[in-house]
Amino acid sequence: MARASATTGIPRIVTDVVASASGSELRSDPVEPRTGGPAGNARLTAWTGLLLLAGFLVECFTLLSLRAMLSLHILVGAILIPLVLLKTATTGWRILRYYTGAASYRTAGPPPLLLRMLGPLVVLTGLAVLGSGLALVPLGDSSYDEIVTVAGQRIDPLTIHKICFVLWLVATGAHVLARTVPAMQLTVVRRKRRTVPGAAARAAVVAVTLAASAVTGVIVTDLPSDWSHAHYFDDR
Predict the structure, then answer these.
(1) What digits encode the pLDDT tens for the residues 191-211?
(2) Structural domain span for residue 122
């Protein structure tokens, strides 16, 4: 059972998340030479997260008029794939270093328990919604072909994409609420200004990832597909 705060009676598992989300308790990550260690990893993860947030907001905006903005919807979804992979890699590296006993990462400590539980859901649903959406592009009209029937409901590739999106929206919405302020403090606001080695390398990683995103967007939008035909929206 989670211990409660002595002053409020609220379980510690909840107060830890609130303190982290509000930015009142920003984790003090050790700084190492060359790469920056945990502090450098935190900054790279934060920048990647903010870029992902901007992209996902644009992606959600296209849902307001998907028929008019379908090409943009597909383009942004493709662009987000390398960014999602980068954020998965940076968080995965931190987890690996922590659980393999790296001293600096053990000193930094793990994030609050609830966020540790939420993290895998954010990664899996993010990859699922992007992967299922990417699969729809070459499928075209086949996206409406029934795969299976569950409780009398037809399940087709498009339905799977919609389910993945709803699951992602719930998981990522909670993640954004908990992580946006700390990410802003590490990148834009810089409440605690200190020199962290490896800034040029981190900028290069982000630049290469954005270049890969641009290439991915071009490749995906050039794939042969019938999704641009208006009759799909008229009939469905």
Answers:
(1) 556 788 999 999 999 999 999
(2) 34-224
